[in-house]
Amino acid sequence: MSHLSYLSGMKSGALAKTAGIVVQGVVHVLLIVGALLPFNNPGTAFALGCSRFDFVVAGVASTPSFFNPIKETCMVKQAFSNGTNGIFGHSENGDGRVTFYIGGGFGPASPYAVAFGADIAAYADVPAEEKLLKRADSLVKIPLAEDQTFPALAADGGSDRLRELQAARPGINLKDGMGQVREVGYLAACKLMTAAGFQATLQADVFHPLLIKHNCVLENVAFDFQVGAGGGTGGPGAIPFAEGVTAPFLSSTNAKIRTNFTMLGPLTFLGLGPRIGPNAAACVAQVLVHALCGQRDPRETRSVTLVDAPPVGSNKPLRDTLVMQLAQATTSSKVQERLDRWAPNRAFDTPLGVVTILRPWWFQWITALRIAGEAANAYLPEVEELLRAAATPGVIEGIKVEFRNAQVKVAGPIKHLAERLRSSRGKEPEGFSTACTEVKFEYASATVTATVRGSKVQNLEESLAGLASEPCASVGGNQEKLCVLTSTKAGIERELRECTNRIEALDRKCRPAQEELKKVWRIFFPRGHIQMSMSWLADRNRAMVRFENAVNKIRETGRMIAQLNAEKVVLNRLKGQVDSILALQLDHLGRLPRLLATVRPSGSSSERFVELAPLDSIFGKLLQMAVQNRQDPDELIEILGSAASRVTLQGLVQITQSHEPTPAGIALQLLKGESAAQAPYWGGEKPAMKGHRIIVLPPVAKTLEDTLRNQLSSLSSELELVCADTARAGVNVMCLDVYHPTSWDDIFTRLLRKELEVAKKGGPLYFPGNADCLAKLNALADVPGAKL
Q1: What is the mean pLDDT of residues 174-196?
Q2: Distance between CA atoms of 124 and 133, rounded to whole angstroms?
Q3: Which of 59, 45, 61, 63 has its CA nearest to residue 403?
Q4: Residue 694: strand pairing partners
Q5: Taking the CA of residue 712 as centre, how many other CA atoms within 13 Å lie in the half-sphere pointing to its CB?
Q6: Phi and psi, residue 65, nearest 5°
Q7: DSSP per residue over 141-205, as a string?
Q8: 514's torsion region: left (phi>0), alpha (psi -120 to 50) or beta?
Q9: Quick check: 319 pLDDT over 70?
Q10: What angle do CA 669, 357, 102 make, to 5 degrees?
Q11: Strand 440-443 to strand 407-409: parallel, antiparallel, or no bridges (unpaired)?
Q12: Phi, psi of 100 (to 5 degrees)
């Protein structure tokens, strides 16, 4: 709803275009009723004075109350543009998608999960790691081992080996981590699953929101549990979380459930601890048992995705960047469609058909700072133009001050004054001059009404208070707010000038009567010999008539002047309110150019690597940052980077390092992959089976995508080209080599088998809750390869 509409209590015509005439009529009536609600503002009286004509004002001291329909109207307008159930955010396709990030492996990607396409996203980790995560309003955060200690955990359900470890390592604090001990992470996850608080969180933040989002029609729900296999939190927590989270959906809906485990392998964390390898080998084994052999509801299918990122040692920021881009690519809807298309045949061909191995490639991503600088350059002129918003002629067509219970007071009837004059005997009674000329204008309260583009505002002061109550989240809304404020200020100043002009005109009109009264004064209260002589000669009866006429004229004019002065006081007070609101608004908006300047590149470049969404898409967040005076470069870069909607041809040239700035040159570079960084093969061995390659572009224009697809198909028939749903986690091109293992040797390479032998010796420390998992895997028929 526009601010002009808010001031006038009227709806703009935009709603009719989206909602239809009937719907618009209903909303229109509701908003007008809200805008015209009566206001009761009891106040206390205070006295004000002027040099000549005095008046007494009963002022309003209470805080104004008002009905603010801006948010409701915006919601309704947005809702009906989204479709029948848009007002509630409902979808009736029946396909839900939930992503759980457990532990630190994929944790950095969790703030972007909703942008990746998840309906619900949750992140579970120890409190110390949770605090380090980027802010994400839509992310459900679940603290692990928040109220638990290592001794208590070991004593309550821990193995003998774990209790021995606890005695030898008493300093482990579970709030900081699980010490890369799988049994600790498993026990903490199991404890959480049975906790009443978690069950309440699961219902309130996962189960119910997903039902609401899909209008209680759930036919299929895909759960993806993304974990790092080599740690002590995500890997051992994956199965307890999967069982606990899917349970209410299986028991309370008829939905078919697909549970996938995406596991980041040990090579990603190579060199970060001796337990990484054995943990990962044991994790893969236990998750495979759960996926291949575990008991399940007939409506549930399970799958496993194995992947590694390049080992970068202790360079966590780089690893986080790689993992975020990996998650962005693998969870994109088009990639999932390709993987799902191959899944049924694989599941029938071999027991390992539900297992997918990925080998990702990363091209040269465009840095977040570069994208932020490009966005700052593009948006700055729009922000500066906003600050130049000025009063628009015709917005405020008239301002009127209305007084309640107003009355004019004078010092008695003129006849009484005349009697006092007659009996004065040449001596002026005390206060007589004031009694003749003083006019007091008293009122209980004053209301300023205005005509805004033809519609009357009942209470301009309260409407302005409502206008100032919250910052707008859109450029247009702020432009209109500034327009209303500056136009209102101009209208008030115009009315003040008019009041002043009318007072001056009335004062001029009153001067003859004032001069006449002075002459009468010299007759009745002469001073000096000349005046006394003239007084004796004057006709006193005639002078009395002149006195009454002069006082009557002065009082008549004084009534109007006193009321005009009262109007000026009210208008000046209102002008002060407008000035304060306007100054605050300009101060907040004025911080935006300074904020953008902090990431703006020093040089100018004509290259545009991305197409940007309208400024409105991020304006609310930018303004909030400016209003709260937050000086956080990372947050600013994140906000500006989120505005990148599509990557340009120049952007793809930069990413692929193409020698030719053409689609053909880019296609050739994608095929060769010369500038791409490759992840190691799973388990450190090149797979024997042939893979498929999916090239995942960032979002690009449809014409560019089709051109690149045609160029690639002319070079190779074995590549598939798709676009990711978003570039929020990084603007890059990725290749995914997809392999489908057929034997144990494809999964448990020599490196992993060696780590598996170490894990076996650790017993329940590595295989909590399922010590015989290897025997179960070996019992599977039709799986070639050496026994585990």
Answers
A1: 85
A2: 11
A3: 59
A4: 720, 736
A5: 24
A6: -110, 145
A7: EEESSTT--HHHHHHTT--HHHHHHHHH-TT--TTT--TT-HHHHHHHHHHHHH-HHHHHHHIII
A8: alpha
A9: yes
A10: 110
A11: antiparallel
A12: -115, 125
Tokens of 59: 């002022």
pLDDT one-digit tens code per residue, 15-63: 333 333 222 233 222 222 222 223 233 332 222 223 233 333 333 222 2
Whether 348 and 308 have beta carbons less than 8 Å apart is answered as no
Look at residues 721, 749, 747, 718 and name the one whose alpha carbon lies nearest to residue 734. Answer: 721
Q: List phi, psi (to 5°) of 624.
A: -60, -40
Q: Is residue 491 within a helix (H) or strand (E), and if so which, with residue range?
A: helix 475-524
Do the beta carbons of residue 648 and residue 278 sit within 8 Å? no
**Percent helix, percent strand, percent coil in the chain, to nearest 5:** 55, 15, 30
698-701 contacts, C-beta under 8 A, 24 or more apart: 698/646, 698/647, 698/651, 698/655, 698/723, 698/724, 698/727, 698/731, 698/732, 698/733, 699/645, 699/646, 699/647, 699/723, 699/724, 699/725, 699/726, 699/727, 700/646, 700/647, 700/648, 700/652, 701/611, 701/646
CB atoms closer than 10 angstroms to residue 193: 17
Q: What is the reported pTM?
A: 0.77
Range in 79-83, 387-391, 700-704, 764-768 the model is least confident about:
79-83
Q: Are strands 692-697 and 719-723 parallel, antiparallel or unpaired?
A: parallel
For the chain, the average pLDDT equals 83
Among the listed residues 347, 448, 378, the one whose alpha carbon sits nearest the alpha carbon of residue 643 = 378
Please give the single-letter amino acid code of residue 786: A
For the residues of 301-324, what is the DSSP string, one character each?
EEEEEEE-----TT-HHHHHHHHH
Closest alpha carbon to 127 in 70, 193, 176, 79: 176
What whole-number distance in Å separates Cα of residue 293 and Cα of residue 398?
A: 79
- Three-class secondary structure of residue 124 per DSSP: strand
Q: CB neighbours (10 Å) of residue 129?
A: 19
Written as six digits, the tokens of 732 are 């890059």
Kind and range of the H or E element at 613? none
Tokens encoding 218: 């759930």
Q: Model confidence over 626-649: pLDDT tens digits?
A: 989 888 999 999 999 999 999 999
Distance of CA 292 to CAs 246, 284, 347, 352, 599, Å? 17, 12, 11, 8, 51
Contacts 24+ apart (CB under 8 A), 211-216: 211/253, 212/88, 212/89, 212/90, 213/89, 213/90, 213/91, 213/96, 213/119, 213/120, 214/90, 214/91, 214/92, 214/93, 214/94, 214/95, 214/96, 214/119, 215/85, 215/88, 215/90, 215/91, 215/92
Whether the pLDDT of residue 71 is over 60: the answer is: no
DSSP string over 358-388: EEEEE--PBPHHHHHHHHHHHHHHHHHHHHT
- pLDDT on residue 556: 93
When mean pLDDT is compared across 155-164, 238-247, 250-259, 747-756, the lowest value belongs to 155-164
Judge whether 733 and 653 are in contact, CB under 8 Å.
no
Tell me which H or E stretch contains 341.
helix 333-349
Listed as own residue / partner, the contacts of 20-23 with beta carbons closer than 8 Å and 24 or more positions apart are: 20/80, 23/80
**Chain centroid, CA 482 distance in Å:** 22
